[in-house]
Each structure stands twice: as C-alpha cells, then as structure tokens.
Design a protein that fits this description.
Blueprint (H helix, E strand, L loop, with lengths): L1 E4 L18 H9 L1 E7 L4 H10 L32 H7 L3 E6 L26 E5 L13 E3 L2 E2 L9 H19 L5 E6 L11 H5 L8 H16 L23 H34 L8 E4 L24 H10 L15 H7 L13 H4 E7 L9 E3 L3 E2 L3 H9 L6 E2 L2 E2 L25 E6 L2 E6 L2 E5 L13 E5 L15 H17 L8 H7 L16
Parallel strand pairs: 1-7, 1-8, 2-10, 2-11, 3-4, 3-7
Antiparallel strand pairs: 2-9, 4-5, 5-6, 8-9, 12-13, 14-15, 15-16, 16-17
Length: about 550
C-alpha cells in the first residue's frame, strides 16, 4: 500500500486534471484507476497531514494550524493525541511494515530536537522507519537539505543528489529490504516528498524541458486549462469561467523583462513537479518489477492544499535586501534570471501562476473559504479491485476519508486499544462505496464538512457551501460578508446566493457553530491578531469574543 502526497499544487496544474505540467506517471495511475474531482484538503500543510494520517478532522487532533508554542487550546496546540492513532499505528497492529519518507511536519518544535523525546516523531507514531526532513519543518533546500534517518540527522549526500531522488532511492530500498526478509508481509509506504513547496529548486535539465512553454502568460494558461478540463471531464460541462482574483496583474500589462522572468518562474516550477513525477514513476516501476503492483493500493493526493500565492505579484527569488524597494528587487531578479531554480535561489513563483494553476477555482493556499485553497485532485489506483479504469467520481470527499477508505479496501481492522490508549472514533468516511462502476453515481456519504483556517471558515452540506472571511483581507471580495454557493450547480463558486436564500445562510451558520463546538474549532484564532496581541476571536468577531470552553 502506498500513499503519495504532493505539496502546494493547484487543481489545474497537472496534465491528468487538464493542466500543462506533464506528469505521465501520475497520469498513468489515474488512467488505470479512478479520478476523484470533488476531493478537499485543509488550506495548509500540517492540518492536512494530521487529518490524513489519523482519519479525523484537523482540530479534533489538535492541528487547527501548525504546531506552535503560540497556541495552547485543544484544537490548536499541535500535539497529535495518542487516542487517535495514525494509519501507521493501525496498520502495524494489522501486521504491516510501515515507512515514511519526506515531509512529516507534525512533530511539535519542542519535541523535535536530537535529544528527544521521540514518541512524537514518525517512529514514535507507528512508522518502522523514517527518512526525510526534520519532522517539525515544512520544507528545506532541495540541493543541501538537512535530512533525518529515524531520529538522527543523516550525513550530507556525497554525490549532492536532489531530495526527490534521495527519497525515491530510500523508498525502493525500504520495500526491497522488507520483501527480502519477509516476502509475504504487507507494507505501507507514506511518500510525501515536500515538492512542490518552496523553494522551487530543480536541475537545469528539468527547467529546460519547459523552455518557452509559458511565454503566453497566466491569463492564457487559465483559459487553455479551463477548456482542457471540460474536455477531460474533470469539471462539469456547465462550469463558468471564474473572474480573475482581484490581486492579479494582467499578463499583457507587464514589461518584457517581467514577462521573461515570470515565465521562467513557471518553467522552473513545472520542471520541479515533473521531476517529482519521474521519481514517483521509479517507485511504481519497482513495484511492477517485483510483481507487487497489481496488488498494491496507491492513493495519490495531488496537493495538500491549493497553490501558494505568497510569492505576490513579482514572485520571490531570494529574500529582499534591507532597504531595497520592490522595484529594485524586481530589477535585481531580472538581472539574475539564470540563477533562478539553482541553489543560489529560493524561488516561489508569482501569485499569477498560483491563480492559473488553481483553475477553475479562485484564491490560494491558506484560504479556507474558496475552493482554490482546499480543492485538489485525488487518484485511487488498485488493479485487483478497481475495474472501471480511468473512471471519474464526483462525490464530495475530504482528506480524512483516505484512512477509512484504505482500511476498508485492504480489509484491515482498527483495534479498540493501541499502545495502551483506548481509541476514539474515526471521523472520515470511506470512499469504498463509490469504487465499483455500477456505483459511480452513488449518493455521496460525506455530506457535512467544515473548513477553518486562521479565523476564516466555511461549511459544506449536501452541495451547499457557506463561506465567511471573518474580516481577513484577501479571503473574499467583501471581508465582512457571508457567501453562499450551490456547488452542485456552481462548481467553482461564481454565483453568490446569500441574498436569495437567507434561511440557508442561517441554517449553515448554525451548523458551523455545531461542528465547531464538536471538533474543538472554537475559539477561533486569527493568525494576524494572535501575532500582534494574542487575541482570540469567534465567528461573531465584531460583537463578541468567545471564551475558551
């Protein structure tokens, strides 16, 4: 069994979902398996990973945000409870070998030193072996990383190979060693390489693969991909082309120097993702070589959230020099364009490309209100059980559904007690009901789901979605207004129906309250206000402050 999680990538990035970044190995898995077009993640990395690995809602396992000493309430303190076991702990109890590679991002910083304690490192939460970044961090340099083996820092690679290659090598070695020592024992591989989180660094051969392919710009990209998505069937035929995000520059308004630099940013990012796909392909090919592929369930989550818009209008080449104006930074970046993507840069592309790769949705990673922050592709591949090769499924699903889906499909059991801790219920919903071809249009079973991030929130129920930015800029057109969408008829949230259906607004507002209280979402925490004053807010920010009950 293999779980693959890709970082910071939009719904419209990869070719398998209509994008222009070539991912032939991931596409092959989709063409032999199932594409889920209504799959959702949290708006940020660590909450998504917490929900994925435990099968629970992110606040329910204390990851409403990142693990930080700034947050000490149950929904946000960043300590995964042992009463809510990880998939690795569950599968180990079912006789599996368990491996994790790449990015973990769930160990609290206070527990992440080399002196321990190690019970909250991956190897303390059910993984036999771990090879990847320091388990408290979100990313690292792709050419000069600090990597850990189990709980100890690994010596630098003498050949200077990039992280993607090193991780794929270890994945293959883990599987090889296990099959050599116990061929009949099942294994679980969690492969989360951290690509394409910034810094977007990749070798020149991968950058050059896309030379000139994005010169027409992000406005062209959105329109081109939108039409491809319709033809591919991964968005409904009646989907409307959404208006551009209000923070974006039009491509045609840019100078020649800006166009050249910004196109290079996207060439570099696309190369990074294609390199990632290549290394995933090596792992899949190895499984085929050893005769294990047909009997292996592979779940590919193409994104732990939407595309990252924090690069701003000009992108981020390196840190700005003190006293330098944005225009001076831009001109310096243009002059150093050939260093972009090398180890002399720490690139993050401009927000125009984030918006484009989020097609057909709006806004970015970090935004729980709009689908651009939370709507990602999901692929399920399992030759021995999936007969509808290349099938498309449109039922609503959430990141915490992957664990119960996996458990059901492989016939595992969740023990009542794991490592001495009585287990609390799984909160996700298995997607196994939708696997068979005759059930492709079965009614969705995950019918209610809240979203929340740094004080903004949304609630989904039976196709209806209510969103509220809660006073935070760049979360919606009007930061003090609630927006209501019928996503069954309006896939990418173009038509606000809040004025037309006030009773539905009230129903969903009350439902969010109920879900928030149930899963430790309250008291909401506005990241920016916590940073300044430690202020805790409720959804009724303008009129009251929720206590911490």
């Amino acid at each position: 069994m293999v779980w693959i999680l890709i970082d910071d990538i939009g719904y419209g990035a990869t070719t398998g979902f209509g994008g222009l970044i070539e991912t032939p190995h991931i596409d092959s898995l989709a063409n032999q398996g199932l594409r889920y077009t209504n799959f959702h993640t949290c708006a940020f990395s660590a909450p998504t990973r917490a929900a994925l690995l435990t099968g629970r809602n992110q606040h329910s396992v204390h990851f409403g945000f990142f693990a930080s000493t700034s947050y000490n309430t149950p929904g946000y303190d960043g300590y995964l409870p042992f009463e809510k076991a990880t998939v690795a702990e569950i599968l180990r109890e079912n006789g599996y070998s368990t491996f994790a590679l790449g990015k973990y991002h769930l160990t609290h910083p206070s527990d992440a030193s080399g002196s321990g304690p190690f019970n909250r490192w991956p190897t303390g939460r059910g993984f036999d072996h771990y090879f990847g970044y320091k388990p408290s961090v979100a990313s690292d340099d792709q050419f000069h990383p600090s990597l850990y083996r189990d709980t100890q820092i690994e010596p630098a690679d003498p050949k200077g190979r990039p992280v993607n290659e090193l991780l794929a090598n270890e994945a293959i070695k883990f599987i090889s060693d296990q099959k050599e020592s116990d061929p009949e024992k099942p294994f679980f591989l969690y492969y989360a390489s951290g690509a394409g989180h910034a810094p977007h660094q990749v070798s020149q051969e991968w950058r050059d693969k896309y030379k000139g392919k994005f010169d027409k710009g992000w406005d062209w990209y959105r329109k081109e991909v939108f039409e491809r998505q319709k033809k591919l069937g991964v968005i409904p035929a009646n989907t409307k082309f959404a208006p551009a995000n209000t923070d974006l520059k039009q491509w045609d308004s840019l100078s020649d120097g800006e166009k050249k630099l910004f196109a290079r940013y996207m060439e570099n990012y696309a190369g990074f993702i294609s390199e990632t796909d290549h290394e995933i392909g090596r792992i899949v090919d190895y499984l085929k070589q050893i005769g294990q592929l047909d009997n292996t369930l592979i779940a590919v989550m193409v994104g732990d959230n939407g595309a990252e818009g924090a690069g701003g209008p000009n992108g981020r080449f390196n840190n700005r020099v003190d006293g330098e104006t944005p225009e001076q930074t831009l001109q310096r970046d243009i002059a150093n364009i050939d260093k972009l993507g090398t180890d002399q840069s720490k690139p993050l592309y401009p927000s125009g490309w984030a918006a484009a790769t989020n097609t057909p949705f709006r806004y970015y990673k970090g935004n729980p209100c709009y689908e651009g922050g939370t709507h990602d592709p999901l692929i399920l591949f399992y030759p021995n059980k999936i007969t509808d090769k290349g099938g498309i499924r449109n039922q609503y699903s959430y990141i915490n559904d992957i664990l119960p889906t996996t458990i059901e499909l492989v016939g595992a059991q969740v023990p009542n007690v794991i490592n001495g801790y009585k287990q609390e219920p799984i909160e996700g919903v298995s997607l196994a009901y939708s696997i068979d071809k005759e059930n492709k249009n079965a009614p969705e079973q995950h019918t209610i789901q809240y979203h929340e991030m740094t004080g903004s929130y949304a609630i989904y129920k039976d196709g209806w979605k209510l969103s509220f930015a809660n006073g935070i800029a760049k979360r919606s057109e009007d930061i003090n207004k609630k927006y209501l969408y019928n996503t069954k008829e309006d896939y990418n949230e173009v038509n606000d129906l809040s004025a037309k259906y006030p009773e539905k607004v009230k129903e969903l507002t009350d439902l969010f309250d109920k879900e928030a209280l149930k899963y430790n979402v309250y008291p909401l925490k506005n990241k920016w206000e916590v940073k300044n004053k430690g202020k805790i807010i409720s959804r009724r920010q303008k009129t009251q402050t929720t206590n911490s009950k």
